[in-house]
Amino acid sequence: MKNFTTKNSPGPVKNGIVMALSLTIIILIWKLIAMGVNSEIILPSPEAVFRDLLKIGRSPEFLPAVGATVARAVFAFLLAAFLGVVTGIITGFSKLADLLVRPVLVIIMSTPIISLILLALIWFKSGNVPVFATFLMTFPIITVNVNEGVKNIDKGLLEMAKVYKVKKWSILSEIYFPSIASYLTAAVSTAVGLGWKVVVTAEVLSQPQFAIGTNLQNSKIYLETASVLAWTLIAVSLSFIFELFIRTLEKRLIRWR
Questions:
Q1: One domain for residues 33 and 50
Q2: How confident is the model at residue 10 (pLDDT cuts 50, 70, 90)?
Q3: For residue 77, what is the domain's CATH number?
């Protein structure tokens, strides 16, 4: 059975071929629809978008815009991850803290993202709006997951560790960390995907000087649809890179566990 599964499971090369074929089909369908519409404003052709993509890549505003957006996303996420882990651990061990924090998390998660962004536009400078919105959207996800990880630690293992007088550091590294890690990795994966979308959306509305979202909005104002799609492809590609990075960290964490 093991040999059968190994032989029939798709390898990296086969997966790559399937993905390339899928992308080719999507581009062909896109091209056919663009030819039928026959309007560069409504739906530009793939080659027009690719041409604008190359143009944007050579433009002087490309690196500052991408760098600023990535910096905002990373800062907001690291802040949310740090405070989320700390808050999740505290609320996981303390029922009182959990009761105090839980309503706040529910309110944040229930509030529409557009409301948070509009409030941030009133309270902060344009460059800080995406950071604030992204932090608020990702912080509850990490906090709740870490909280669940703490609550689901095997109590039997903890009792056994106490009986055998296992050192506190060993209890932390061998029981607490592995238990929380699986919940944390799931939270991080979800938070990164959501956080990246929030950053770009907030930039579209707040219009900081250097930002992917600002360039998207400017392209839309001038009805440069090909440029809108080109900047969208840049944002999607960066999101894919972030996701790949997180997956790599997850695999290493699984090996450590």
A1: no
A2: low
A3: 1.10.3720.10
